[in-house]
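Two proteins, back to back. First:
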Amino acid sequence: MKPNDTVRKQLRMKPSGARRTGVWNTYRTYSIRLCQKYAIFACAACVLATCLVSCTTDRVSETDAITVEGMVAVRGNEPFAAYVLETSDRNTYVLVFPEAVETPARLQVTGRLYLGEWMGQSYAHIEVHSHEELAE
């Protein structure tokens, strides 16, 4: 008798329930692995969604009005030029004026502070409500 014939004979002799157990274990293992993959995917999706939602909160309240003073100059090239105020502490703010302002000038600016983008980077912006020129 060949070895393959012996294996075939042993398989025929096993009760029918024992033969199905191997198939059942195969399906069970497959479904457990599939559930693990979906669980990992679901966790990653939840983390990503949480990060996206929490990072997009750039809303500001009315209490974000500040007053700063410093040197105002125009920086950048047209059409991307912007008024930029630099304080004595070396803080930089991009200013959004309702009208044009003569620069360079030393100004005290009051306005609403918010986070915005300029030249591909995040900068603190001030929406100017009022400004006054300071004596040097």
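And the second protein:
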Amino acid sequence: MEDLDRLDIRILELLQDNAALANAEIADRVGLSPNACWRRTRRLEERGIIRCRVALLSQEKLDLNVTVFVGIKTNEHNDKWLKTFAEGVKAIPEVVEFYRMSGETDYMLKIVARDIADYDRVYKKLIAVAPLSDVSSSFAMERIKSSTAIPLYT
């Protein structure tokens, strides 16, 4: 981050808020010419700081009304098991986030599903991927904050 200046940070903030903004609009908001803004944005993309631009969809409007956080424990801690497990989990589209954890839980997954029966279908796929010692599911009752924006500092 040491070579990102306030203009780079502002461009990133604007794109995190709305990736569909036209370059001319971004340039105007940050006080750059369109060409200079495009070059900066392109550099941020080339460096991998901007990984991709996406559309964020409404779970509710798509009837994906259940969000489940799944804690996984395993007795297997080797590369072969992890490769099998990671590839299997990545192939389940309902798993929208997947983390290896420290502490008592080995892996944490965030799953979105239509309803409890749909989650049960996903659960059955999940437990068939690799041997697990414990699977603990917590159902979100209410989404209080949800953001894809990460904090940016100058």
